[in-house]
Amino acid sequence: MTAQTPPTPPFRDPRLPFAKRIDDLLARLTPDEKVGFLHQYAPAVERLDVAAFRTGQEALHGVAWMGPATVFPQAVGLGATWNEDLVRRVGDAVSKEVRAMRARDDRVGLNVWSPTVNLLRHPLWGRNEEGYSEDPKLTSAIATAYTRGLRGDHPTYWRTAPVLKHWLAHNNETGRAVSSSSVRPRVLHEYDLRAFRETVEAGAVAGVMPAYNLVNGRPNHVSPYLREHLRTWTDEDLLVCSDAGAPSNLVDSEHYFDTHEEATAASLLSGVDSFTDHGTDGSTIVERVQGALDQGLLTDADVDAAVRRQLSVRFRLGEFDPAHDPHADTKDFDTPAHRALAQEAAEQAVVLLKNDADLLPLAHDTRLAVVGLLADECKLDWYSGTLIHRSTPLEGLYERFGAERVEFAEGVDRVRLRTSQGTFLHVPLAEAEDEVRGAEGALDPALLAGRTDLPPLTTDATGTELALVDWGEGVLTLRAPDGRYLSVADDGYVRASANQPGGWVVQETFRLEPHENGHLLLHIGTGRHVSVAADGVKVAEDGAEVFELVIAERGGDAVTRVAEAADVVLVVAGNDPHINGRETEDRTTLRLPAHQERLLRAARAANPNTVLALVSAYPYTVDPADLSAILWTAHGGQAAGTALARVLAGDVSPAGRLPQTWYAADTDLPGLLDYDVIGGRQTYLYFEGTPLFPFGHGLSYASFAYGDLTARVELGTVHVEFTVTNTGDATADEVAQLYTRAADPSVPRPRRELVAHRRVTLAPGERAELDFQLPLSAFEFWDVARGGWRLEPGPYDLLLGASSEDIRLRTTVTLDGEPAAPRPLLQHGLEAADFDEQSGGEIVDRTKAAGDAVTPAQGGTAELVYRHCDFGAGVTEVTVTVAGEGVVELSLDGGPAVAQLTQLALPAPTSGPYDYTTLGAGIVAEGVHDVHLKLRGPLRLAHVGFSG
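Above: the chain's sequence. Below: its structure in token form.
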């Protein structure tokens, strides 16, 4: 007899719909196997021939952490292109490299944690480089393009499965795991949720990652918005992956729950499906989930729901249909097309901010001085891959203009460090091979250790001249003549061993601390001082050496020397993405570091034809008055230098546009934790000052004329048509931007709001006819009086131009809508968080599960204003739902108090922040009034009711 082939289980049958196949596989998994799937590293189920699966592969602007890959411009640079087609092609290339790399290294995952759609609300945010824009419309447009590229265009099988980061209202690194973003309903719906919603609705998103922070007093990992909003935007099963270590934070740092079983259950019930915690070891999460099941905090059905969503992603990735997966044999890696695309993206990301007297583009015979700390650098960030190709601005200019026409001065201070014994720090010669941090790939690059195969520093009579750079706030790097940075490995010795500063905890930064007649040298990464021992230079708790800083040459002197002999000076300034402004660390100022300001002053003093090229992950404030030209580009990846050189030479006309406002001074900024973009008048939407450079700004080597603007309203759509003509003598791109503004709003609305844009390429004299179709929903706002979106009837200005402030044409359309109505107090009362205006308050969680309340910040005083409240024919009683201790005063139209309700502290331990009570008081009011509430003391106000 011939043995019969076992029948194919339904979950392996590609003819069946995914839903039925998932049902079958779920039924075959044991309860323990399902629980195991909830960790980031889901184990294999060998008896079913189901492979292990890992959520999470960083791919923000190229495949990250897994070794060499094509490196594209930083995300903020991709945002500056304002070009969805380009960004889609970048996403397509990245996803192909993910597949190609996975074919030879199964550590590479297909569930990519990218893009970041957090809005760049505050330019001091340390992770500014990861976002696309301060504007939700532009952010969602670029994010949608990138996710479509990552997903691929096959109707069934996805090339990769993108997860959006970081849900929600996450713009600070300072206290990021314990701070709460107070987000009023209008800001929540009109701003923070919007970028996520429009990207998810576009249909190429596999999931989201909650952020570390809290929103309105509740951790994002137990956010009810995951159910109430996210999962309503699509019919797809979205996979929610926790951020690393965040599940444990719920207990360990946030103290939001008493036990990890409670925290894990609450996260799962809120919608978290995959727990990223404790590295590759899933045993702790498994134990917590099992404990929650045993305590009745979870059911098997709850676990099934989470596993189903993970399996949905795995089926879409073709895991269970290898013979039908169209992406399985993808081999596109570091191809000529990818290299060309990296250069194209870097070129399109360059923004020309100023160009007096048309100094740019440079003539081909220009004698050029290239100076600055970033002139010969191609910097990477935490979410970069390892460079295969590298181009610095200096290299690009050598290639474009000829090395004989380019002089270089880096501008570092060249120093030696003399010990108290009269000897100098010495870098021994090393014959070890060069190593690039992370080139071998790592699932967690934070665990990569420093090199110990090189000899530690010693001392001798002459010492080694070191290149010293002050990156701001006294944070220094010291570099040996061979280009290696001084670094400290796990054994505590100081070596010249790092090719660049980097790592989760940077080990290449130091601080000089005045001490007696010299300085102590503090190693920032370990918090220890440098000492000199018989076996080498090391960091230690005691025995700190006192050094004298002997300066061989000031960087400014070298800059002056080359600048005086040049026709034009190019100063390349900016940031190192691992220092003073990065994940875990916000910036403290918009200003350039003092070292770089000194170099810029030296260049300007020596040569009036000075061009500043800022290469940075975020905006700076600089004085443009004495500068002939200014450009900005984010760190542009592997082709950054070539791209900048081609723009400077005029081979490419710059057409990048600023994706966020560049403010003129630190005093223009709100507090880092002030998330109320409306009340705080933040971003170009509400900012009323004069920016250094406005949102959408960017100049060109050509000129453009706008004309023939028409607008009409038809079948629920506003149709806008216009022309753009290249009136210059160079082929160039123009980015046409359409903004809208409510002409007569009943509530504060944006000064102007981007609703559409298009980047077009035009030859000299060429004219393009462009059109936009705007749904009426683009004109709506979130009406707190009704708890929903409303289109206000009336006139709306349509503003068309080259930036948010460079408006070339305008017209007005009148829209029908729903008129404003007073708040019906007798029917609904007032939800505390639904204020129109407030001062001194912050929104907190009404309960751990759902709802909002308002409390005075730090237990002080807050005032809440609710406009146009209808008391009807009259009310006689007001009630407040409050917890804690304090006073609520009610007044009408800003007059004297008409009711006061006092909540006394309940005896501990029966009282708590969620122990609400209802207090009542008499009141006489009728008709429509503005209600003012004054809160005093550490109380939480949830609701105000009226009767009578």
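The chain has a mean pLDDT of 96.
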